[in-house]
Each structure stands twice: as C-alpha cells, then as structure tokens.
Design a protein that fits this description.
The chain is 38% helix and 17% strand. The chain is of the alpha/beta class. GO terms for molecular function: 3'-5' exonuclease activity; nucleic acid binding. This is DNA polymerase III subunit epsilon.
C-alpha cells in the first residue's frame, strides 16, 4: 500500500514532535530558500546513489554564496563508466569523500525547515528521502519549489500558442545567467539560485522559441 506523501508527513510530524528534529516539521515563516542539487549515479531513484550534494541559501534578493554546502561522498559501488556519463564525476574527484550518514546530518542542519528550490527538485528530494528515511525515520517535510514551474508561470503569457522550452540550458540562456561549474552539485545549486532571484525580482525574460 502506497501512503500519500501528505498523510505520511502528518504521521511523521506526530511521531517526531518531541524529538531532536521536531523543528523541521514547523511551518517556515522566514524569507530564506535553499537551492539544492544532488549528483547521482542514475536517473532512476531506485537504483541511484548520491555522489555529491550542493546547497546554497537565498535571502530575499540575495544569493548567499558564502553560506553553502559542498559535500562529496565516498565513491559508491555503482560509480561506473555508464554512471560517469551522467554526472561527469570520477572516483578520483571524490577523494576525501564522507559517509552518506554524515552528509545527511549536514543537509538536515543546513536546510532546516526552509523551502527547497531546485531544477527537477522532486527527484533530488526523493533521492535524499531514500537515505534519510531509513536513518532518521522520516522524509524531508519541506515545501518544494520547482524552478521550471516558476519560469513557465512567468513567461507563458509571452508564448501563446507555443511550447515553453523548459530545458536547463535554455532557461539559463533566456535569463542571461551563466551556468556555473556545470555537472557539479554546488554549481547547479548556485545557477538555479541565480535563476530564481532573476525570475522573482528581475524583469520577465523575453520568449524566443
């Protein structure tokens, strides 16, 4: 039986209301968002393992580039030639990587109960939940903000009758935001953060398709 995420969240909030992570389930009323990205060995959540995690905080109009997470994990067994084609990360790039258990503790402390922003953010949340739930007994309860949805909702009125190209490279080009350290978790997290601030507080982009 598959339990709906909303129902599971209510149960987990009740189960952990007196525990060390109770604050994660409280409603967030601040003005910060966390842009987060995971690099993994597969695009299939069931088979994938996390090789790096990047996150950066956004406060209002500012990307707090110095307030970040840039975590490398120990190379998993699934780090093969095929998986390297996805994330461009080799075993040598993960030298000094930490255990997934330590990485997850850092993620929970850094993110807190802030909204999580990302490109295909539900994939990243599901990947993290895959490892967080067995270790802590709950999944991330945070509100999720999908960058491509924010982009689409802002420019859809400019492309009546046409399809909106939601590819990462296209959004970056349309917003005139350079892609930083492409195919690294921290690079993608920073790029998404800059895109989000541009969309929320800059002029709406033109729609050239």
């Amino acid at each position: 039986m598959i339990i709906p995420r909303a129902v599971r969240r209510i149960k987990e909030k009740y189960d952990h209301k007196a525990g060390p992570y109770a604050s994660l389930f409280e409603k967030y009323d601040g003005d910060e968002v966390v842009s987060l990205d995971c690099e993994t060995t597969s695009l299939d959540v069931k088979q994938g393992e996390i090789v790096s995690i990047g996150a950066v905080k956004i406060k209002g109009r500012k990307v707090l580039s110095s307030d970040r997470l840039d975590i490398k994990l120990k190379p998993p067994k699934s780090l093969t030639g095929d998986s390297i084609k996805i994330h461009k990360i080799r075993e040598s790039d993960l030298a000094g990587g930490i255990d997934i258990e330590d990485a997850l503790e850092q993620v929970l402390e850094f993110v807190g109960n802030r909204p999580i922003l990302g490109y295909y953010v539900n994939y990243d949340i599901r990947m993290l939940d895959k490892f967080i739930r067995p270790q802590f007994g709950f999944g991330l309860p945070n509100k999720a903000i999908e960058l491509s949805h924010v982009y689409h909702d802002i420019i859809k009125w400019k492309s009546v009758g046409g399809n909106v190209d939601l590819r990462f490279d296209t959004i970056s080009k349309q917003l005139d935001i350079p892609m930083l350290e492409r195919h690294t978790a921290i690079g993608d997290a920073l790029t998404v953060a800059l895109m989000y601030v541009r969309l929320k507080y800059g002029d709406p982009p033109d729609a050239h398709y």
